[in-house]
Amino acid sequence: MERLERLADGRLLYRFKRAWRDGTTHVVFEPVELLEKLVALVPAPKAHLVRYSGILAPAAKWRALIVPESSCDFRQFMAKAATFWFNRLRPIYGLEPNRSGLR
Question: What is the pTM of this model?
Fold first, then answer.
């Protein structure tokens, strides 16, 4: 934040750490314009932050040769986890399988 300052006319001046090749040492933005630049850097919600390409890409023909298949089905895992937590919380809250609404 020490490189960002508000100018007298309300615009924002941002100083670079090092001068660019063309000699530019700072840029001046309107406040909304700076927000537009920052918003572009924020990933979309629920977007994957790691993207694979080449042989590790999801649709690569040879991916199965190097990436092991999962031995655990996700639904089975979630069912086991739900059962585990239900059994752990049952004595605390006095839950009964028929009265809780859980299946």
Answer: 0.46
